[in-house]
Design brief:
heterodimer; A: about 400 residues; alpha/beta; Rossmann fold; seven-stranded mixed beta sheet; 14 helices; about 45% helix; B: about 325 residues; mainly alpha; ABC transporter involved in vitamin B12 uptake, BtuC
């Protein structure tokens, strides 16, 4: 009996080994540089997904997946390109989970991924510019574009019956990109943007800025800034001079310090912040705690990293090939419906279903839903300030 | 009604902010001009002296608040000003003894004194950051408004609101009292007269028996008082952050130079010229013109001469224009 069992097992292994291969996925994110505090848990989450798939033994007839780490530095495009070049040419990876920051990600896409035909899934690049970049169908992201936040904000404003807004943004790439996104979406919905002016952070006095905003007028002032910086100064001065009484607050303006500093006058202002209510998020937090090297799954972009790696492996299974040129076609299919919902920790089930030819809808930790050129639709929490608290209205 | 609305909008967004900012600059510029006319150098450390003095005003305010002393509707910081002046005057006198007196005895060229004062500036800069940190500090208390915009609208029935903050009112009253006291001191008292004599002609003043050390000391004490008052008023009305006080140096010098370095009246006039041009040039006149002009003449654009991003450039431009066409300033300084 024992011998028979052994023999069966060996045959099974042998049969699997005929197709099994060693698949490598590059984890190319900034282990040093401006977001180095985030990348530790991002990499851990991506590698957890790989380990989960390897342990299941169900990917392409029992293939294993290993991670190859490389440091794209977040800030230095040349160093990021070199790092990605290495994992592609020397380690021969089948896909890249990365890059992290928008500028470096764009450089790797153009200089490494497209020439070599490698699929890239970025967990954290949010620049709207990447939506329109030439990508030969190779680039995806599990993080939403800032343009998406603009659309969500325009939706909220329109639903509240706001006809015209004044818009001010903190004078950097984030503020400018977000303000342009809000303005474009709101105008497309028939709204009027009376003024779109920047403000500098760290000033003592915003009376001139507020005077210009007040002269332009509008039902509401949208402040695409930072709550501890100029954003607070603008709101305080607007309230003092009676220029505006209600404010639209994008993600950068969400934090307990703001109601604390402004007081009751902030009540009634509303906005949105990127946050997921998906069932997978809670599971992922527990998985992070239970992992061999525990990590904090609530750290920004960690869930997106797990999802980025998982998407690539599920697409390989759906395509029946680990060749990026083949499985790139399947990423949108596994990420979106119709099909059975797959949550984190259920990758084995997803692989099984795909092997049986059943459609899946990978929901993952961050509620993955890819739209447009393959970027996350993004979940946003709509809130209204009531009694000094950010009360959730709904998720959208 | 439309004319009234236009007037209120102008008052609320241009005139009152300009007036408050101008008053704060004026007191700052008076300090610079005083040092220039009597000690004969441009004191680059003045912005950070203001930060140093304001820091003490804030620390003492916090202490007062913790033991329950307050001024009712007025900011407690007003009570703290005299104590902060004493500490800052001590600091300035100490600096003079340690640093400036050495160079004064050598009769160095004014430009060397300017560089020395830049050194003092960096030390004070560092001291303030060490003691209170680089973050924004809030220390205003009392009631926030003399007249709130919503109340004004309800009372007048106008579309535009007019707000007067307590700190704005306090700024104006304090500025008037300070300037009046300073001019009375310079014109009427024996010490004030000897300071003016020293400023006009140092050798003649020495011959007539004026004690130069005493003149120098009194100058530093008055400078300390002006710096603390200007800094505290600015911090109360706007906000305190060491870096913004360092940046105040530019408009303050622009004000002093436009008015004519060394002329107290000039410093005040220059301060209001700088303050109002910063606000007027960057203000979007759309609303005011919309009220004043017939409906079809109303502008579609914002009618804004310069974006608010270029606010700082306004001080620079005025400075350059005045230096090119009127090198001694509006009031014939030095």
């Amino acid at each position: 009996m024992k011998k028979l069992l052994m023999a069966t097992a060996v045959t099974a292994l042998f049969a699997g080994a005929a197709f099994a291969e060693e698949i490598k996925i590059g984890v190319v994110i900034g282990f040093t540089g401006p977001i180095e505090s985030l990348t530790g848990s991002m990499a851990a989450a991506a590698e957890m997904a790989m380990a989960e798939v390897t342990a299941s033994g169900k990917l392409l007839g029992g293939s294993t997946v290993t991670s190859v780490r490389a440091d794209d530095t977040c800030g230095d495009a040349a160093a990021g390109t070199a790092a990605a070049e290495r994992v592609v040419t020397a380690d021969k990876v089948n896909g890249i989970m990365g890059g992290d920051c928008s500028g470096v990600t764009g450089a790797i896409l153009q200089n490494v991924a497209r020439p070599n035909g490698i699929v890239m899934v970025s967990p954290s690049a949010t620049s709207p510019a990447l939506s329109t970049a030439e990508d030969d169908g190779l680039f995806f992201r599990t993080a939403p574009s800032d343009a998406r936040e603009g659309e969500v904000m325009a939706d909220i404003l329109t639903e509240k019956g706001v006809k015209s807004i004044a818009l001010t943004y903190t004078n950097n790439d984030y503020g400018k990109g977000l303000a342009d996104a809000i303005s474009t979406s709101f105008i497309a919905k028939g709204g009027v943007v009376t003024i779109n002016a920047s403000h500098e952070d760290g000033k003592a006095d915003y009376s001139a800025e507020v005077a210009a905003l007040a002269a332009a007028g509008g039902d509401l002032l949208v402040v695409a800034g930072y709550l501890d910086q100029g954003g607070k100064g603008i709101i305080q001065n607007s309230l003092d001079t009676g220029a505006f009484t209600k404010f639209g607050l994008p993600g950068g303006m969400v934090g307990d310090n703001l109601p604390l500093a402004i007081g009751a006058a902030l009540d009634g202002s509303y906005g949105q912040v990127a946050q997921s209510d998906s069932a997978g998020a809670a599971i992922m937090v527990e998985m992070g705690k239970a992992a061999a090297t525990p990590f904090d799954a609530t750290s920004p972009y960690t869930m997106e990293s797990y999802d980025a790696a998982a998407l690539m492996m599920l697409a390989m299974q759906a395509a029946g090939s680990s060749d990026p040129k083949v499985y790139k076609e399947k990423i949108m299919d596994v990420a979106n419906g119709p099909g059975e919902k797959i949550l984190p920790g259920e990758l084995a089930k997803g692989l099984e279903l795909l092997a049986a030819g059943t459609d899946i809808d990978y929901d993952g930790a961050s509620g993955v839903e890819l739209i447009g050129p393959g970027e996350s639709a993004g979940r946003y929490r709509e809130f209204e300030v009531k009694g000094g608290k950010y009360e959730t209205i709904k998720f959208r | 009604m439309d004319i009234l609305n236009a007037l209120v909008a102008f008052l609320n967004f241009v005139f009152i902010p300009g007036l408050a900012y101008g008053a704060q600059l004026a007191i700052g510029a008076l300090g610079v001009t005083l040092v220039f006319s009597i000690l004969r150098f441009s004191n680059f450390a003045h912005g950070d002296t203001m930060a140093f003095g304001t820091m003490w005003a804030i620390l003492i305010t916090w202490w007062f608040q913790s033991i329950g002393i307050s001024l009712g509707p007025l900011p407690t910081a007003l009570l703290a000003i005299p104590f902060a002046i004493v500490i800052t005057a001590g600091m300035l006198l100490g600096t003079d003894k340690l640093v400036y007196s050495f160079y004064r005895k050598q009769k160095v060229a004014p430009i060397i004194m300017v560089i020395v004062s830049a050194g003092v500036m960096f030390i004070m800069n560092g001291l303030v950051r060490l003691i209170i940190g680089v973050e924004e500090q809030s220390f205003a208390d009392g009631s926030r408004f003399v007249l709130a915009a919503a109340d004004f609208k309800a009372w007048s029935g106008l579309k535009e609101g007019l707000a007067i903050k307590t700190t704005t009112a306090v700024t104006l009253v304090t500025a008037i009292v300070t300037v009046a006291l300073l001019f009375w001191f310079l014109q009427k008292t024996r010490t004030g007269k000897s300071m003016r004599a020293f400023s006009d002609n140092e050798d003649l003043a020495l011959l007539s028996g004026i004690n130069p050390d005493r003149v120098v000391q009194v100058t530093w004490i008055i400078t300390a008082a002006l710096a603390v008052i200007a800094g505290t008023l600015y911090g109360l009305d706007k906000s305190f952050r060491p870096f913004t006080y360092f940046q105040l140096l530019l408009p303050i010098f622009a004000a002093a130079i436009v008015g004519g370095l060394g002329s107290p009246i000039g410093a005040i006039a220059g301060a209001f010229v700088v303050a109002f041009s910063e606000v007027v040039v960057t203000y979007a006149w759309k609303k005011v013109l919309g009220y004043l002009l017939p409906v079809d003449w109303a502008p579609d654009g914002l009618t804004q001469l310069l974006s608010t991003d270029y606010k700082v450039a306004v001080s620079f431009s005025i400075l350059i224009i005045v230096l090119l066409f009127m090198p001694t300033g509006l009031f014939k300084g030095k």
